[in-house]
Structures are given as C-alpha cells and as structure tokens.
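Can't paste images in this forum, so I'm doing it all in text. The chain is below; anyone willing to post the predicted structure tokens underneath?
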Amino acid sequence: MRLQRTAHFTRAYGKAPKQIQRAFDKQAQLLLLNLHHPSLHAKKYSEAEDKCQARVTKSWRFYFKIIGATYVIEDIIPHPKK
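Text version of the structure:
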C-alpha cells in the first residue's frame, strides 16, 4: 500500500497545529503497516462515498479512501463531536 494526499488534504494539513501534523505523520505510518492498528480506530465513515475515518488524536480525525493499493488521504479536521 501507499499514501496519496489530495490538494485539499495538503492545505488542511498545513493549517493544522504542528503537534497534529507530527501525530498524523506517525498515524500515517501505522496505516501503511496495518489498517487495523488499535490506535487508528479506522472505520468506514460513509458507505455512499466509500470513505473511511481514522484517529490522529482524541480530538482530530483524518478521512481517506482505499483505491486499489493506495490510501487516498482527503482531509484532516478537528473531531466534530469534541
């Protein structure tokens, strides 16, 4: 598997605090190693859009799609429920 970042993600990542950027970088490496790693809490977010959600920290999430052998990272945002 490999990662691909969308332009939207790249802008959102750039606006995120540095500690969130570092946490995402760590979680992205875990995603590449094991989609089911416990700290990711990865799950299907939208069946209609075929989009998944995973945890950056308790208060931040990132969203991605799996297309072939690629994780297409689409967004990183503060968790809507926090």
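The longest strand covers residues 70-78. The mean pLDDT is 96.
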